[in-house]
Write a structure and sequence with these properties.
The protein has 3 helices and 2 strands, in the order αβαβα. The protein has 82 residues and is an alpha+beta fold. Strands 1-2 form a two-stranded parallel sheet. The two termini are 28 Å apart. The mean pLDDT is 85.
């Protein structure tokens, strides 16, 4: 199943809140800060659902000076990892 939300819209944020309220985990792979800007930080998810597990898997590590600013689309990951 796939779901696309516009987190810049009120409807998207309300849908995200409803999903977080009943979820076991939230896993995201955006650049650092992307979920925080619309107010969807790990702290926010825990106010909605205290036992929730959150995992952020950004494209490249923020400590990787060479690649941290690169959007890691599938082709870039494949090229980097072989």
């Amino acid at each position: 199943m796939s779901l696309v939300l516009d987190l810049k819209s009120q409807e998207g944020l309300l849908t995200a809140e409803a999903l977080v309220a009943r979820a076991d985990a939230v896993i995201e792979n955006f650049r650092p800060g992307t979920m925080v800007r619309p107010g969807l930080s790990p702290g926010w998810t825990r106010t909605i659902n205290p036992p929730i597990v959150t995992l952020s898997m950004p494209w490249f590590a923020s400590t990787d000076a060479e690649f941290r600013g690169i959007a890691a689309w599938e082709a870039i990951i494949a090229a980097r990892t072989g």
